[in-house]
Amino acid sequence: MREAPIGVFDSGVGGLSVLAEIQQRLPHESLLYVADCGNIPYGEKTPEFIRQRCSLVAGFFREQGAKALVLACNTATVAGVADLRRDYPDWPIVGMEPAVKPAAAATRSGVVGVLATTGTLQSAKFAALLDRFATDIKVITRPCPGLVERIEAGDLHSPALRQLLQGYVEPLLAAGCDTIILGCTHYPFLKPLLKSMIPEDISLIDTGAAVARQLERLLGERELLAAGPARQTQFWTSGDPYHFRHILPLLWKEAGAVQSFAL
Ligand code: DGL
Prior knowledge:
This protein has about 260 residues and is α/β, with parallel strands linked by helices. The chain has 2 domains: about 5-95 and about 210-260, Rossmann fold; about 100-205, Rossmann fold (3-Layer(aba) Sandwich), CATH 3.40.50. About 45% of the residues lie in helices and about 15% in strands. It is built from 11 helices and 10 strands. The chain has helices spanning about 15-25, 45-65, 75-85, 100-105, 120, 125-135, 145-150, 160-175, 190-195, 210-220, 240-250; strands at about 5-10, 30-35, 70, 95, 110-115, 140-145, 180, 205, 235, 260. The protein is globular, with a radius of gyration of 18 Å. The protein binds D-glutamic acid. The site of D-glutamic acid (DGL) has 17 residues, from helix 3.
């Protein structure tokens, strides 16, 4: 079981930002990555639809013998993690949540911005996160329709993307935010562009590294951490495998075999 793979799931390529953190922290693990690119963006889908997709992908990972599941998607986590934990009580499942807690601890101005999908920002789980950790700070939220589609197309720098992003970030800066939470796993790929648009003393926070640590903790407790040096990463997409293969080196820094996920 120690050598079994870990299943990692996102609506698209965004979860590759989390996969990179997992691979860095746990270099001996074999990783299975499913991108539901055929149904992107999740941010505008109903929670019911997303729950069905989570359930299908979880079933697929179980068939592949995965020893753990990482929902590398904030939007899928708010919609689906509770059902998955109910359905698979003994399976280590790690979800994402916007970094409200670390941002509340880090902010000096007391004003924090959150960039995330509409689905994440409208969820009860996000409201509960604010109730728990944001009582002493002001939080400005900003849904960002259109960003995910650009990143899926492999666009991390174009003038049109810059203009779109500008419209989302400017109100946060105007409100006095000194900390911006990247509450969607696609957005860390925009860090270089974002940094060129904001003052140097504004921090950008995401939770990829924290998720990798949590995964390590859960596997360690169950004595499931892989020991050997070998590791393997396999990719599936419900979208166009050729396109995924094409943009993989841009987001993952390595080429890789990509199979079609037809569920
Ligand atoms: N990457 C996903 C997240 O973390 C969402 C992208 C989408 O809208 O599909 O929220």
